[in-house]
Amino acid sequence: MEMTLRWFGTGHDTVTLKQIRQIPGVTGVITTLYDTEPGEVWSRERIKALKDEVEASGLHISGIESVNIHDAIKVGTPDRDMYIDNYIETLKNLGEEDIHLVCYNFMPVFDWTRTELARKRADGSTVLAYSQKTIDSIDPADMFSSISKDANGAVLPGWEPERMAKIKELFEMYKDVDEEKLFENLKYFLERIMPVCDKYDINMAIHPDDPAWSVFGLPRIIINLDNIMRMMKMVDNPHNGVTFCAGSYGTNRANDLPTMIRALKGRLHFAHVRNLKFNSDDDFEEAAHLSSDGSFDMYEIMKALYEIGFEGPIRPDHGRMIWDEVAMPGYGLYDRALGATYLNGLWEAIVKSCS
Ligand SMILES: [Mn+2]
Description:
The protein is α/β, with parallel strands linked by helices and about 350 residues long. The protein has a single domain, classed as Alpha-Beta Barrel (TIM Barrel). It is about 40% helix and about 15% strand. The chain has helices spanning about 15-20, 45-55, 70-75, 80-95, 130-135, 140-150, 160-165, 165-175, 180-200, 225-235, 245-250, 255-265, 300-305, 335-355; strands at about 1-5, 30, 60-65, 100-105, 115-120, 125-130, 205, 240-245, 270-275, 275-280, 285, 315. The strands form 2 sheets. It has an 8-stranded parallel beta barrel with strand order 1-2-3-4-7-8-9-12, surrounded by 5 helices. A 4-stranded antiparallel beta sheet has the order 5-6-11-10. Helix 13 (about 300-305) crosses helix 14 (about 335-355). The structure holds manganese (II) ion (MN). The site of manganese (II) ion (MN) has 6 residues, from helix 11.
C-alpha cells in the first residue's frame, strides 16, 4: 500500500502540500480540480498544472477523488451521452498525464450525509455525526441550511450551495429512478468508459454510499457486498473496481469489513480507512482512527488489506477537529496526520509479524 492524504487544492484546502510532505510515510496525495462542475471536461493543461504543483512539493498524485458524475448520467436522461463523452475525454487527459486511479460515486442528490458537522465529544474534540431520528424528522431541503453553519466557511464536497439551491429540482429529476434503474444507468456508463480505461490503464474505484442505506427515500445501491459483486459482474473488467471506505460500509453494522475486503481481492483499487463510534444502532459519530476509540477493529481491517496483497493508495479519512484547528469538517491536518501515522504503525507491525 501507499499512504496518502486527500488534498483539495490550493485555495480550497487549509492544509498545504508542505504540511502533507512532513507527515512521516505519506508520499502521495489524492486530489481533484475542485472548481470544475460535474460534466465538464478537465483539460490536459489544468491536469498538468496540478501535477506539476504537487510534484514540486516532493509528493505525487496517487489518484483523483473525485471526477464527479453528472446527474444526467445517474438519471439516464437523453443528454447523458454527451456527458459520458466529456467524462471519457477527461479520463483520456488524465491517462495521458499518467494518472491511473479515479474515485467516483453514484449517489443520487446527496453525497455523504451527516446530521451534525461539529458534535462535541468528551475530550473537547468535534466530529461529524449522524442520527437517523434527525433525518426522519427534517425536510431534505432544510438539511443544507441546518448543517452549513458548522462548515467553517468551507464548501463541502457534494454540498455545493449552487447544487443545494436546486434541491427540489434534483429530487424531481430522480423521482422515477429506483434501485434497478440506477444499476442499469451505472452499467451503461461503465460499459461506455471501459475502452478508455483499458487503453490508459485507469482503475475506476466506486465510492460507497454514505450512510450505506437509503436516505430521504432516494435509492442507494453501493451499500453491501452483494451489490458490489453485482456491480463488478455486470461489467466484468478489472478496471471496474471499488474504493473500500471503512467508514461508509461500516455505517451498516451488518457489513463485516474484513470479510468484504477479502472478497474484493483484485478489484479493490483504493482504501479509505477510518473508525466510527456507534452510540446506538441509529446514531454514530466519527471517532479517532485508533481501534479503542471507536467500534471497528482497525488491526483486522489493515490485516485483511495486507492479506489480499493490496498495493494501491490508502488514506486516513475524516478526522476529528482537535487542537483548535479551523478547517473543512473532517479534513483538518492534525487528526488525519495522527491517523496516517497510526495506520502506518499497524501496517509495519503486520508486515513484520507476517513475513
Ligand atoms: Mn470515504
